[in-house]
Structure formats: structure tokens, C-alpha cells
Prior knowledge:
about 260 residues, alpha/beta, Rossmann fold, 2 domains, 6-stranded mixed beta sheet, 4-stranded antiparallel beta sheet, 9 helices, globular, ABC_transporter-like_ATP-bd, nucleotide-binding, ATP-binding
Amino acid sequence: xxxxxxxxxxxxxxxxxxxxxxxxxxxxxxxxxxxxxxxxxxxxxxxxxxxxxxxxxxxxxxxxxxxxxxxxxxxxxxxxxxxxxxxxxxxxxxxxxxxxxxxxxxxxxxxxxxxxxxxxxxxxxxxxxxxxxxxxxxxxxxxxxxxxxxxxxxxxxxxxxxxxxxxxxxxxxxxxxxxxxxxxxxxxxxxxxxxxxxxxxxxxxxxxxxxxxxxxxxxxxxxxxxxxxxxxxxxxxxxxxxxxxxxxxxxxxxxxx
Length: 257
């Protein structure tokens, strides 16, 4: 019997007032694979991420985790399942140091006081598994480079050993070297057996990293692709709507979804 996907969405819908921003969304993510989520601005990518992470729960549809139906109504529900999210704005506090940001809201206490030594030890251990480019863990985050801040946000998401990472445009504001470092991290996560949903506009990143790609257009699925066999032109055409209906079914079968 085949192993069920780590996360699967079936017929997921989300409405804000009279506007339905997600309509009958289908999506599967398996352990140890990177799925790229693509779409133009306003396609519904961020709303879908927020539905999966419990920030703005879906109105209708079925979400399964390892084959069983689950209800994600708030961020705690997603975290309890093992879903962690790194948003595009990173949600870091610039005036706090690296340790303070990693443990913000999850502080370790000992005898009623913050255990700064233990939090620093664990933060160093987390970062050593990711990168060695942040030598001073007590430096305020505002003084770090964009790539270093991205690494801090990713390290924070790894608290609690998540099994699925949602990464919203992780390389959007990075230079070449910093982008390479973040992409290497995503490769590490796949090797560890984590599932990764990578939201990106960068086709170079998608072709370099993703196993499969799902395209949203106007809040609906508009294509599923096996990245190793689909051309960049096919995927871009699905994003822009140049091939609106016919390839949707063909690509769905080709990707095995």
C-alpha cells in the first residue's frame, strides 16, 4: 500500500467577504521532497500558506496529514502537527539579538528566570547545523545581513523539529552568495526527510531545487509539473495563463498528482 503524502489538500476554499480567493485547491507534499508553489501576484499563494499554517483557516475542503483528516484552525494546530512557516517579512525583532529572536515566545526558564545560557547553547547548536556565518549570537538582528536574518528566521522555525516547512519567497531580497546559502539549506532539509513547500517567483531556484511544481492562477489550480521533465516555458505559460485549460489535466497526469 503506497505511503500517503505528508500533507494533502482537497477542495480547499477561502473567501473574504464576497470574494473567493481560493477555489477547490488540490495540493500534495510528501516527506523528503520540495514542492514549488508558483503564481503571479494575487494568485492566492500567500492565502494558501496562511490556510495551511492556521493563520487564516480554510472555509471548506479537506486537509489530511499522513492520510488522516485534520482541522487546522489556528497556528498552534499547525505547529502541533509539525508544520513550520517562514514568512517573507521574516517577523524578526531588529532590536533583539539572535538568541532573543530564535526563542521569542518560547523562552526557556529556570527557577522562574530566563535561562540565557541554555538558550544560547541551543541556538548555537541549531545554527551550526545550518551555517557558520553568524559568529556573534548576541548581535542585534538589525545589524545582520539579509542572508543572516533569513537564516535566523529559518533556525527559529526548526524549534520543535517540524516535518514540513513552508518557505515564502526565501531568496527574494538576497544576493547571489546569500541565495546559494539558503538554497543549500533547503537541500539539507530534503536530505533530512522534511517536506518543503517553496513559494517563489524565481524559476532558476525552482528548476534547481524543486521536485514538483504547483501553479495557482486567480485562486485556482492551473497546472502540476514534474520539474525534471517540464520545460521552464511550460511552467511559465501556466503561471501567465497562456495555456489555461488544456495543459492543466496533462500536467497533472505527468507530475503523478
